[in-house]
Amino acid sequence: MTRPERFQAVIDYFKITRPEAETELVFGNPYELLVAVILSAQCTDKRVNMTTPGLFAMYPSVAKLAKADYDDLFAIIKSISFPGNKTRHLMGMAKMVMEQFGGEIPMTVEELVQLPGVGRKTANVITSVIDKQPNMAVDTHVFRVSARIGLTLNAKNPLQTEQQLIKYIPTELVHKFHHWLILHGRYICVARNPKCAECGLKSVCKYYHTVIKKQVIREKK
Fold first, then answer.
1. pTM over the 0.90 mark
2. CA angle 128, 129, 133 (to 5 degrees)
């Protein structure tokens, strides 16, 4: 099977099984999504969604967040991983948005990565979710799943993964493909003991054919 054929098989599968794939973070506007994504680094979406209602009640806008007191904000997000760093990132982000972007969340990757706490992955999430720009955010799930299936070959880091994926995904599907891989990695192709028996992609998955299938054959001998 060629790589274009494998990509097409994956696209066809997810179009049927997850046609409306989207982020599991709860948000109402670009500001809220940016805050949620910053908080989600090395933290579960479930925990973030438990934390943000209180945060947005106290700081309903980027202007309010820019004036936040460190101790007050820290107290709200203390159950999130790395609360100290994220408190500083959120305050710094909000101040920069107010001072350099007129209070509006920028909507280009180049501008977003200037903000504290915002790397390329976060910028790609914001622009693809809000504006449906063809930007591929690569987190641990996307990195793992794309390599296992065989969508990427010898990609050493997120940027290489992003570049390989973009090459084969139709532009109009890039913003959705990110969510397809994340959700698949979160619920089926998990890091340890992937649920291959439940996976509808095993017929086109390199990992299944080169690792799992061989293990099954050895066990039967």
1. no
2. 25
155 DSSP 8-state letter: -
What tokens appear for 93 in the block? Answer: 């982000």
Query: What is the mean pLDDT, run by run of 10 residues, along the chain of 221 residues?
Result: 94 94 93 97 93 97 97 97 96 98 97 96 96 94 96 95 96 94 95 93 93 69 57
Listed by start position, the domains of the chain span 3-21+136-220, 30-131
DSSP letter, residue 104:
S
Q: Is the dihedral of CA 170, 175, 178, 179 positive or negative?
A: negative
* Residues acting as catalytic residues: 121, 139
Is 196 one of the annotated binding-site residues? Answer: yes
Which superfamily does 30-131 belong to?
Hypothetical protein; domain 2 (1.10.340.30)
Give me the sign of the Cα torsion angle 94, 26, 193, 175. Answer: negative
CATH topology of domain 3-21+136-220: Endonuclease Iii, domain 2 (1.10.1670)
Among 120, 126, 117, 125, CA closest to 31: 126
Q: How far apart are CA 97 and CA 85, in angstroms?
A: 18
Residue 205 labeled ligand binder: yes
43 is in an annotated binding site: no
DSSP state of 19: T
